[in-house]
Amino acid sequence: MINYLYQEQNWQTQLSDLITDPLELLEILKLAPDQLLSGAILASEQFKLRVPRAFANKIEKSNIFDPLLLQVLPHHLELEDHADFVTDPLGEEQANQQPGVLHKYKSRFLLTLTGACAVHCRYCFRRHFPYQENLPKNDDWINIKNYIETQSNINEVILSGGDPLTLSNRKLKLWIDRLETVNQLKYLRVHSRVPIVIPNRIDDELISIFKNSRLRIILVVHSNHANELDDFTCAKINSLVKENITVLNQAVLLKGVNDSVQALCNLSYRLFDAGIMPYYLHVLDKVKGAHHFDLNPKVIDQIYKDVLANLPGYLVPKLVREIAGEQNKTPLFGVTTY
Ligand code: SF4
Question: Radius of gyration (Cα) for the chain, nearest Å?
């Protein structure tokens, strides 16, 4: 159903008016409060529910199994302990060189400027990350610049999160201006789910900032299901593509959400129609609280095999896992234990 309010309301207003009460979300979706099994409220206290109303508007009413809803609704199973599901599955605290800098790979590093996200994805591998201790302050910039200049291999910075597009355009531009002063940098990657959950984030000012940067900007959005990509969302993202900004998508393979060949093929086609190239399909990072999204490796292998058989090669995202301490994401297809 089209709700034009979310097409007109500016993104800051939407960001300041998120749904944070699980019972309100159920009411909006015409679901009974007892759909929330005991434990889910506690789970939402540990990792707060955050859902933009524009995203809730894409969820099918009265369907507790809606693939978009399953990604955001707290679940009592999040409270279960599983030995191999831990708080820092990617060993990021080891890679945290100084506030805001996560340096894992040779040619690029992550700059985390905010711990805030527009949406809280229940499977997020950073759901336990101690952001508050790691955000750079204004005067940390000189140290960050010095750090880049000691690493001659670095030519790319990745703004990650939290979600960098929750920052104001002013703050984003300030950091982009700073990064532009470092001669060795050529590329700036922005990892964000905001364009999917609040499409109005792509406003004229943001387009202009990206378009006019000396750095080549690559926006990597995060969409897991074709239902997230309604016409309005696609048109907004496509307005960046029209300005020659490269837009890629990374998805996470999630039990109950997109674990079928049909769902993954629909996602790839929908992305492509919007000018977005499928980039990565991540298997779930084993983060504490997300075990119920996990899939058996043999099931993953079969799904991916079927995706390969059904899509042209250019629409098949790379199936990968991130392994703590590795120099790159690890390709997985054909591997039996992962
Ligand atoms: S938007 Fe990204 S960083 Fe934020 S909760 Fe979702 S997956 Fe995690």
Answer: 19
| Cβ atoms within 10 Å, residue 5 | 11
266 and 206 in a common domain: yes
Q: Point out the ligand 1 atom lying closest to the alpha carbon of residue 117.
A: 4
Could you list the residue range(s) of the whole structural domain that residue 15 is in?
5-79
Quick one: which H or E segment has residue 150?
helix 141-150
Cβ atoms of 322 and 286 within 8 Å: the answer is no
Q: Do 103 and 215 lie in a common domain?
A: yes
Residues contacting ligand 1 via CB (< 6 Å):
117, 119-121, 124, 126, 161, 163, 193, 222
Domain shared by 166 and 268, yes or no: yes
Q: What tens digit of pLDDT does each residue of 35-82 get?
A: 887 789 889 999 999 999 999 999 999 999 999 999 999 999 999 999
Q: Are 90 and 124 in contact (CB under 8 A)?
A: no
Q: Give the total number of structural domains in the chain.
A: 2
Type of residue found at 167: L
| Minimal-distance CA residue to ligand 1 atom 6 | 121
DSSP assignment of 247-315:
EEEEEE--TTTT-SHHHHHHHHHHHHHTT-EEEEEEPPP-BTT-GGG---HHHHHHHHHHHHHHS-GGG
Rounded Cα–Cα distance for residues 255 and 100 (Å):
32
Q: Which of 104, 213, 98 is nearest to 158 (CA)?
A: 104
pLDDT in tens, 280-300: 999 999 999 999 999 999 999
